[in-house]
Amino acid sequence: MHKATTGPVVALSCALVLACALAGCGASTPTAPALVHDTLAADSQIASGKLSLSLSLSGSGGGAAGTPLSLSLSGPFESRGAGKPPSFHLDFSILTGGQSLSAGAVYADEALYLELAGSTYEVPHSASAALASQFEHAAQGSGKGPGKSGSSPLGELGLSPGDWLEDPVVEGTQTIEGMPVVHVHGRLNVGHLLEDAGGLSGVAGSLGGAARELGDAGAVASLLSASGRAALSRSVKSASVDLYAGAEDHLLRALSLSIHVATDPSTRAALLGLEQATLALNLHISELNQPQHIRTPPNPISLGALAALAGG
User: Fold this and answer.
1) Is the pTM of this model over 0.90?
2) Considering only CA atoms, which of 7, 1, 23 is closest in space to residue 232?
3) What's the pLDDT at 10?
4) Phi-psi label, residue 20: left if phi above 0, alpha if psi -120 to 50, beta otherwise
5) Are the C-beta atoms of residues 43 and 151 closer than 8 Å to each other?
6) Pick the CATH number of 6-291 from 3.20.20.450, 2.50.20.20, 3.40.50.10490, 1.10.10.10
């Protein structure tokens, strides 16, 4: 995979966690800040559902920084309780630099699997155990202050998405899949988003070698470092977020982010030569709190076999 800006990594990481845990309740006619708080509160929870996510990134700059990228991800998820990774079966595709990758990931019965080219590979138990350990450790409290810990995966991971949206305004109501929803628009606080995304590195790192097979972990770590996040924050020219929540139950139905970045010589080096970029992300969650049947894949192959094949 090409080295890319941190946008896809940040957006995808946050979106995956968001889809596993958001919910709320409140008055039928809330103000915009109250609705955002209810929908994105760290102690709110969606027990299950189906996630659909699309992301596009276009940019210019030296090397791979200007390579367009598109990504889609979809599939069911189901909470296994506080302090435990949710079960999921997600299919994803990535297109960048004229190359494409389609694959899947399954977490079921405390084991992690990768689906590639029609075969299923079981990730070593050490990686699955590390992922579970990260959730269990985070459930004890992130120590990042009020709103940064709670019973949902959001709080357990130290995420506070309510801080990402500033100056929210209710734009009106509409329907999604026959359900009345309230549309809220606001500015995206990229600094808070990147701070939370940086905290996800421990969970992402638990996938270790498997992740490194699919991307440049060193480049991602550099971009999510304190200096990389600072450079990104200074380079943002516009950033907005649109949130769609159930008019009655305040459950999250959809979320859209739009970010435009333009660098100068002082920040370009820290962002791998990126000059400018536009990131758009759309997230949709359906079948909220309906049972999802996520099962262990039959006849998985050891991931070592895939590594041997790749080495050949």
Assistant:
1) no
2) 7
3) 43
4) alpha
5) yes
6) 2.50.20.20
